[in-house]
C-alpha cells in the first residue's frame, strides 16, 4: 500500500490524525481513502493538518473542500472521504478549540454482497404458473370453493405482492369486507381478532381485483359454493391441480420464487413489506374518506362552532414562582441532586423521613423549580402518604393507599427527566386535555430505546405507565382534565399503539388559511403558521419547534435549519440532531416567509442575542395556549377529524416525503390526494436529486428519510410514521411492466363485458385495435360491477373561517363532577348536609336535589311485567341505599371513567344524540339479559355511532343478531352485510335464539370487556361490563331534568 506522498512527520506534534486512521479491521482501500483526505488537507489547510489550535473554517471553506473530496470519485468513495473529514473537524472542535462548520454526510447503505445475485433468482416455475393462471382466466370460475379461493390467493401472491402466510389467511377471512375506494381501488382490510379499529389494508392488483369482483358478484347472487379453508396452502394446491399443474414445488418454495419475481419489478422495501418483514400501519377509514373526497368529516362540531355553554369550572392551583433562565437550565441537576438524597431514605428510612426530605427541598428551592418538577415532587409526597380506601375509587391510576418509598422514587425517576424536558416552563394543570396528551407524547418520545435483547420499548412503556399514574395525581389533587392514554400506553398484547393519521397537501393549505388569513395577521398568527409549516414540510416535533433559536437558521445559497440541543432543552436522541435542507423541503415563498420572520425576531430581541428563541410569547399566556392549541383547533376545524393532533403533521411529512421520492417509479395516475403541484413528476425528481444526489431510489431513500425525521433506523420511520406503503405497493404493481396482458375472452369472463364493448373501448382509447389481441386488464376492470363503499361518516365542506386572535381555553371540570355525584348522592341518602360542597363548587342545593330525583327515577323504572329494569330481583328485594352502586373491578372503573369523560365532552358537540341515547337506554334496558335491544338496523346504526363517540372500541361493542328464519349460511351472509352497514364499528355475532322461536329480527347491543376470561365467543357468550352502565347512570343524573322524566 502506498502513502500517496503523505509525510507522517508533519503530524509529529499532534499525531491524533494517524490515530483516527484505522490500521486494522478495515479494507486497505478505506485506509487509503482516509490518507488521501489527510494529503488534501496538508495541501489546502496546513495549520489544520498540523493539529494547531484555534483553526477557523467557515461554511464556504468547508463546502469548497467537500467539493474537492467529491471531484472525480464515485459516491461510495466520497462517502468515506466526507465522513472521515467530518470526524477530523469534530475532533478539532471538541479538543483543539476549532471554530468550524460541520458538513452534511450523505447516507449510503452498503452490504458485503448484493441483496440478490443472478444465481439466486429461481423464477422459472413461478413464471410457468403465472402463464397458466393468465390462460385460465378465460375459463369459468373453478367449481369448488377451495379451488376458487386458491385462484385468488395464488394471484395475490404472483401479482399482488402478498407473500406473508398470515396475510393470505386474513385475505380469505375478510373477502366479504372488500370495498372500492375512489379511483376504483379495491381494498381488503386485513383484520385479525386483535387488530381492533387499526388494521392493515391490501390494495389489490388488477388481476386479483377482477377475480375478487367476480367472486363478489357470484356471492351476491347466491352462487352455489360454500365451505371454509383451513390453510391457504391447501387452497393453492387445490387450484394448481384444477388447472393441471402437478409441480413438485412446495407452496413455500413457490412463495420464495414469487418473492424473487417481485424483486425484479418493484423496490426492495415494497417487497419486504409484502413479505411481512417491514411493518407499516395503515390509515383508518375516516382518513381515507377525507383523502379521497377532499371534504371534511362531519363527526363533531369544531371547538370554534360551539354555543359557548360549558359545565361549571373550578379554580385550579397554579404553582407560583418564576425561575430565571439560569435556574431553568438547572432543573435536571436539581432533580439529580434530590434523587441522590432521597434514594438513601427510600432504602432505609421511613415514609415520614422520605416525605420530610422532599418537603425540605421544596421549601429550600421555592421559586426556583419549574412547575413540572414541582408537581413531580408533590406526587412523590402523595405516593407515600396514606390515601383512604373510599377515596381510591375517585383517584385515577391509584390502587394502593400507600406505596413504599422505593416504589415512589422509581415512579418519579421513570418520568422526571423526560417530563421536565418536554414541559419546559408550562404549568400542567392549566393545560387542556389535548395539550397534555401532546406533551406526554413528547415526553415518551424522548425515552431512549431499550436494549436490543428486549422485544419491546420497555423504557418508553414504563414512562407512559408512570405518566398515566402521575396524571391521575394531577386530576385528583389539582382538577386537571382527563387525558386519553390509549395510544400512549402499551396495549394488552405488549405492542405500542401507532396513532396513524395524516392531512393532505390541500388540507394543509386550508389549515394555513385558517391560521394566517391574508397577509395581515398579527405576530401570534404568523408564529402558528410557521410552526405548522415546519412540522408539515420539515417533520419537526412539537418540542423541536418551540426550542428553535435564531442561530439555528443558517441562510445562504443552500439554507439549512439545525435541530440540536440547547439550554432550552435536549433532543430525543443523538439521531435527532440533524441539518434540514430547507432549499429542498420548502418552496421559495415558504423559505422567504421563514427568513422574514427570523429577521423580524432579530430586530426585536437584538442581533446580539442569537440564542433567543425563534418563537416566543410573553407570560402569563404561555406558548402552549397561545400557539399550539390554536393549531390543533384549526386542524379539527378544517378536517372535521377530532382525533388529529399536532404530531400528525410530522406523520404527514414522513408519509408524503416517501411518496414524493417514489413517484418517479410509479404509474402516472394521480389520486385526489396527490393532485398537488408538489406531486408533479418534475417536482418529485428534483426532490430526489437534491436529497439523494442521484436519480436512482434504492435503500438510500429510506435512510435519508429517517435522517430527515431524526430517527436512527428506517425501521422506526416506516413502522410509526409512514402510512401509505400499502397503497404504494398497490400502485407499483399496477404499472405496465408488472401487469400481465390478457385476451378479450379473459376480460369478458372476468367482467361480463361483451367482446364488442372490449374492442370498442380499445379503439376509442388507442385509436386502433390491439394488434396482438392482448389487453391490459386494468383498463376494463373498473367497468365491472362495483363493490360497496362502507359507510364511515357524513361529510361537509371544510370550514375556513379564521380563528379568533385571542383563543380562550376554559378548563372544564369533568373530574370534579365524576367525583362529586356519588358523594352527594350518598350524603343525601344518609341525610347528611351538603351545603359546604355546593358552595365550594358554586352549585345550588337544587342541583343536588335534582340529581337525587333522577337517580330515584332510574332505580324505579320497570318493564311491562313489573320487573325492575336496572336492579336485579335480589337487590330490589333487599333494598339499596345509594344508586348507582360503585364499580368494583379495575376494568369496570376504567370503562366508567372513559365513557363518562367522553360523554361530558359530547355535551357541547352532540348533546341531542347523547340525550336521545340516554333516554332510550334508561327506558329500554333490561337487566335480565344485560343488553340494549333494537328492532331496526337504522336505529341500531345511530346508537353504534353514539357509542363510538363515547370511546367504545369495536372489540368492546357486541351486536348479537337473531333472525326469525334463516339457515347458517344466510345468517352469516346477513351478519357480514350488517357489519359493512355499520362501518365495521361493532363486532356482529349470531344470537342464541333458535330459528322459528322469534317473529321479527332483533338486535341486542352489549358493552363488554374483551379480556374477560369468562367469555366464550364460540358459543356466543359475552358478559356485560357494569362500568358502562354506571357511566350512563352518572351522565343521566348529571344531564337530565324533570321534563325528561315525564313518560
Give a short overview:
The protein is mainly alpha-helical and 1047 residues long. The chain contains 44 helices and 16 strands.
**Percentage of residues in helical conformation:** 40-55%
The proportion of strand residues reads 5-15%
Q: Mean pLDDT score, rounded? A: 78
How are the strands of the largest sheet arranged? 13-16-14-15
What's the Cα radius of gyration? 32 Å
- DSSP summary, beta strand count: 16
Task: Detail the poorly predicted runs.
Answer: 1-14, 107-114, 300-322, 491-496, 805-812
Q: Give the N-to-C terminal Cα separation.
A: 98 Å
Q: Tell me, what's the shape?
A: globular
What's the helix count? 44
Largest sheet: 4 strands, mixed
Derived structural class:
mainly alpha
Organism: Trichloromonas acetexigens
InterPro entries: DNA_brk_join_enz (IPR011010), Integrase-like_cat_sf (IPR013762), Integrase_catalytic (IPR002104), Tyrosine_recombinase_XerCD (IPR050090)
Protein name: Tyrosine-type recombinase/integrase
Keywords: DNA recombination, DNA-binding
